[in-house]
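Structure in, sequence out. Go:
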């Protein structure tokens, strides 16, 4: 792509003038729990009389100065006695000759200075400028024709409104392909992209952290049949920093702007600077893909990557958690089953409100407010309003709703209360790993030995241990190992857990040895 994989300065592109204005951005609904802060008035400062800098304060017990007395008049000194005539000194005995110095050792040559790392070139504007956003069917048809007629892999990205809206739907889709340029599509204006997905389904899609974007792309009709995940490829190749900006800078020598990654992409119309940022996210994806492919091929890991990419495409949709309320931040502070029931009740009430209003749950009520209310156990809605988050005017108007959810748990029979510690660590019946030493010391020892074996493989092959084998599958194997334990029985368990062939071949024998010790 015009040599953009090198570290030479970026091709000059016409500057794009931002057209956004304050009224372009839809104001984000403020969280209901926030109240304006009131700054306390500063305390009055007593006036002080100015003090002249050259006047010292008088002291009551100071001694008066003595009167000045003049010096005595000058009198000349008596004349000095004449000096004795000079007599030369006796000649000194000649010094013994010095021993010759040992020759100096030659200095070690200085180590050459390390060459300065080349500075990354800022990538400020797409080479073709910022395209118009596709927001109607006619423009979508033109975009489909252009992308289908392009050549090579297709760079794909999507922007969501995480932290602002309920769910993970896409609010902007970015695509780029050689011969077609960059296309920005607004899924709010054209919510069905099935025709586009079909037109490019057989093309290799290039995404960064594909598992994050594929679900929201599937919702609008886009499903790839082949892909290359640059984030996962970076992990397999042993790169320590695999964020898009970091790995582009490391391999291609360009610095991407990441200033709008956490923006509210449901804003309409989207500001020009946001669109420029979105276009740049796919500007170099294919170049990055090519560099990582070369890297993986040199390390003998390219087939590993192909197996991983195929597993992403064929993976079943992630099942919803059976008890998602157990992910409430601060839940470890809750001790009793009835308190857990109160957390569950408030979490479900919040989720209903968030879904109805299309707001992120944390913007309706933060987790800490749920836990604080449960631990405080206010006896009435009025008492609930005295808690920090619930004391604002908006929250006071809904205090009866939240108190009813909190109070519901108080009347539940014991049989309907949730269990303590029911959130499993690696599957049904498997406790979190930090409790194994108490529940099953032998299993804890097996897990420690297995983790040590993976750590050795991680160092040997320069890739993270969690990419060598999924942690949940490792815990399942160590908690209930096959009998007898050998390389074949371990392989059977791993294949049943959807481990890839390269993973099984790498770990079957080291894990069998670790579990047998």
């Amino acid at each position: 792509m015009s040599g953009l994989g090198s570290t030479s300065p970026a091709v000059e592109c016409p500057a794009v003038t931002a057209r956004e204005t304050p009224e372009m951005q839809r104001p984000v609904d403020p969280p209901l729990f926030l109240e304006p802060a009131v700054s306390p008035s500063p305390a009055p400062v007593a006036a002080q009389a100015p003090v002249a800098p050259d006047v010292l304060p008088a002291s009551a017990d100071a001694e008066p100065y003595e009167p000045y007395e003049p010096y005595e008049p000058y009198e000349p000194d008596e004349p000095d006695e004449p000096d004795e005539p000079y007599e030369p000194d006796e000649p000194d005995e000649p010094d013994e000759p010095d021993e010759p110095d040992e020759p100096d050792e030659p200095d070690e040559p200085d180590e050459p200075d390390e060459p300065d790392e080349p500075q990354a070139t800022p990538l400020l504007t797409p080479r073709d400028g910022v395209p118009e956003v596709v927001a109607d069917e006619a423009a979508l048809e033109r975009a489909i024709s252009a992308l289908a007629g392009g050549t090579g892999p297709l760079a794909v990205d999507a922007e969501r409104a995480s932290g602002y809206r309920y769910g993970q739907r896409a609010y902007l889709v970015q695509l780029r392909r050689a011969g077609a340029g960059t296309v920005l599509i607004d899924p709010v204006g054209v919510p069905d992209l099935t025709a586009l997905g079909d037109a490019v389904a057989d093309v290799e899609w290039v995404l960064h952290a594909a598992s994050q974007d594929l679900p929201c792309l599937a919702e609008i009709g886009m499903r790839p049949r082949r892909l290359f995940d640059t984030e996962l490829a970076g992990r397999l190749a042993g790169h320590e920093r695999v964020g898009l900006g970091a790995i582009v800078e490391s391999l291609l020598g360009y610095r991407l702007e990441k200033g709008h990654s956490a923006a509210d992409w449901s804003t309409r119309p989207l500001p020009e600077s946001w669109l420029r940022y979105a276009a740049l996210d796919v500007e170099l994806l294919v170049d990055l893909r090519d560099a990582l492919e070369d890297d993986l091929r040199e390390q003998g890991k390219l087939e590993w990557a192909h197996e991983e990419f195929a597993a992403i495409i064929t993976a079943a949709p992630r099942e919803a958690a059976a008890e998602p309320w157990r992910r409430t931040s601060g839940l470890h502070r809750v001790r009793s089953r009835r308190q857990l029931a109160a957390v569950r009740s408030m979490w479900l009430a919040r989720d209903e409100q968030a879904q109805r209003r299309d707001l992120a749950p944390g913007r309706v009520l933060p987790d800490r407010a749920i836990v604080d209310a449960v631990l405080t156990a206010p006896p009435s809605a009025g008492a609930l309003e005295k808690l920090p988050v619930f004391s604002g005017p908006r929250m006071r108007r809904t205090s009866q709703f939240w108190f009813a959810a909190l109070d519901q748990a108080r009347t539940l029979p014991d049989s309907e209360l949730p269990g303590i510690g029911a959130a499993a660590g690696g599957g049904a019946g498997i406790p979190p790993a930090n409790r194994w030493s108490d529940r099953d010391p032998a299993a804890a020892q097996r897990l420690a030995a297995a983790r040590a074996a993976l750590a050795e493989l991680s160092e040997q092959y320069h890739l993270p241990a969690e990419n060598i084998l999924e942690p949940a599958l490792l815990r399942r194997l160590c908690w209930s190992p096959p009998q007898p334990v050998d390389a074949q029985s371990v392989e059977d368990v791993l294949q049943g857990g959807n481990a890839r062939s390269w993973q099984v071949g790498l770990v079957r024998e080291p894990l069998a040895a670790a579990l047998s010790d």
